[in-house]
């Protein structure tokens, strides 16, 4: 924090700013403006990128942002190459789940939320794959089961299946956990596209 370089004990000064309501601590070393400073907080997705990294926003959080599920998600879900972790803060809860490096780097986007706030987020395809990976007890075995999961469990806009990047999905099958479930997802996308093509 450059503005505190002149202090012999900068953390004492930070503690006093927190106590005085000028700063609020999210975790050690990460602070946002407190109640006495009339400054808007950063977007939650931007905070998620910085709170624990490397990480990117994914699963329900990204799918909601892309308009593919109707629910507004309260908890921000991210992927990290570090161990899984949950942060509970006064601004919200931030959950991070682990994926190996080879699967982490697939399907990432830079998304500009405002003029000064750009975040790293999963593409729609990667967000859906990540959601399947992180959902405990979910093992997709058939196209019918997968469509039921999409339509009933997460209320996914299945029209988007027609435009999904199948190469990216194939990369997830090769490099992410739950490869069998992701392979069934890939087959489901192909089956849906073929079915819809018959109506054109």
What can you see in these coordinates?
With 200 residues, this protein is α+β, with helices and mostly antiparallel strands. Helices cover 40% and strands 21% of the residues. It is built from eight helices and eight strands, in the order αββαβαβββαββαααα. The strands form three sheets. The protein has a four-stranded mixed β-sheet, sandwiched between helices. Strand 1 and strand 2 form a beta hairpin. Helix 3 packs antiparallel against helix 5, helix 6 (143-153) crosses helix 8 and helix 7 (166-175) runs antiparallel to helix 8 (179-197). The longest helix has 19 residues, at 179-197. The mean pLDDT is 88.
Question: Which structural traits does this protein have?
Answer:
200 residues, alpha+beta, four-stranded mixed beta sheet, two-stranded antiparallel sheet, elongated
Radius of gyration: 20 Å
Query: Which residue ranges are poorly predicted, with pLDDT under 50 across at least 5 consecutive positions?
Result: none
Biggest β-sheet strands, sense, barrel: 4 strands, mixed
DSSP summary: helix tally: 8
- Helix/strand class: alpha+beta
- Element string (H = helix, E = strand): HEEHEHEEEHEEHHHH
The end-to-end span amounts to 59 Å
Main-sheet strand order equals 3-4-6-5
Which percent band covers the strand fraction? 15-25%
Strand count: 8
Q: What global shape is seen?
A: elongated
Amount of helix: 40-55%
Average pLDDT over all residues = 88
